Amino acid sequence: MYKIQNFSRVDETEYSLPTDNINLLYYDLPKHFSDDYRSYDSPRLCTIIEGVKEVSINQSERFVYNCNDFVLLPPHSNVYMSMTEYTKALVYEFSDCLIDKVSQKVSEHLQITVAKDIEYSTFLRERIPDRLGTLHRRIQEIIVEEDANIHFLLDLTCQEIIYELMKIKGCYDIIYHHQNHPINQAIRMMNSPDGHAMTISHIAEEVHMSLSGFSQKFKLITDQSPKDYLTRLRLKKSKQHLRNLSVTDTAYEVGFENISHYIRLFRKEYGVTPKQYQLGKSVR
After folding, report:
1. What percent of the chain has pLDDT over 70?
2. Domain 9-178 is of which CATH architecture?
3. Domain 181-283 belongs to what architecture?
4. Which has the higher per-residue pLDDT, 164 or 112?
5. Can you spell out the DSSP letters for 234-265?
6. Has residue 70 got a pLDDT over 70?
7. Stretch 22-30: mean pLDDT, rounded?
């Protein structure tokens, strides 16, 4: 598994370990490293394998945590982290599909009551319970072993991790609540197969908001406009198409009518042209 040595969104996308239902990010950070850190469209379960982090969340709460603790961040959190010593960290992102699957099976048995007033500024820091710690170590073993069925094993173990989190007061609210928020409903629409063809006004209408209200709320929560988000999403999808299609066909496939404009945006976002990206992938 690749080690991520900064908080760049480009590196997180490039070097994470994705499966059908989760996304794992392994950070290897030097002593005295510090930077802003963000969660994006999904909750993030943040753990430390080695070292210590000093953390400031949403420019308010400050604390220190280590390998005995976990931090659960809701989507679109702003975090400032400082490493007082060399630090290794493993972060989990869980898909909506996996959260739904586990929730539907166990929520009634756990007698969970979802909080109604949870906000995006809400987060949770707790000691790692024994069972959750065992599962966390199992994930690390699976990564090291590199079994041929690694994706299946990771997904299977993470189902139980979500189950254990749901038993901790406050975790369920953060994991599940975000899916019913209109902005996250909009984000799921944008990420759907037909999302690149949708207009911002159509999306706003679908989530029962005015265009101006939707745009303001979207930027408040995600720190980017709906237009910028859609553009970045199209660029991200284009990286997948570039493996099999020409640059021109890729641009049209993800909704860009002007090829030069697509190339310019791609280079601005990723530091290379689409063609250079293709060549780099073929070398690997």
Report:
1. 88
2. Sandwich (2.60)
3. Orthogonal Bundle (1.10)
4. 164
5. HHHHHHHHTTTS-HHHHHHHTT-S-HHHHHHH
6. yes
7. 96
| Residue among 69, 9, 3, 6 at smallest CA distance from 38 | 9
Q: Measured between alpha carbons, how far is 249 from 150 in angstroms, rounded to an integer?
A: 33
pTM for the whole structure? 0.67
Express each pLDDT in 140-199 by its tens digit.
999 999 889 999 999 999 999 988 887 776 676 666 556 667 887 888 888 887 887 788
Least confident piece of the model among 44-58, 110-124, 173-187, 235-249: 110-124
Q: Is 254 exposed, middle or buried (0-12, 13-18, 19+ CB in 10 A)?
A: buried
Run of H or E residues at 22? strand 22-29
Q: Which residue ranges make up each domain of the chain?
A: 9-178, 181-283
CA distance 194 to 267: 24
Q: Which of 158, 165, 130, 164 is nearest to 142 (CA)?
A: 158
For the chain, give the number of residues.
284
On whether the CB atoms of residues 201 and 137 are closer than 8 A, the answer is: no
Nearest Cα neighbor of 72 from 116, 115, 39, 113 is: 39
- Distance separating alpha carbons of residues 3 and 36, to the nearest angstrom: 18
* Band of residue 119 on the pLDDT scale cut at 50, 70, 90: very low
How many other CB atoms are there within 10 angstroms of residue 219's CB atom?
15
Of the candidates 252, 240, 232, 155, the one whose C-alpha atom is nearest the C-alpha of residue 187 is 232
Three-state DSSP at 70 gives: strand
Compute the average pLDDT of residues 66-74. Answer: 91
- The DSSP symbol for 163 reads H
Q: Tell me the two tokens of residue 57.
A: 């969340």
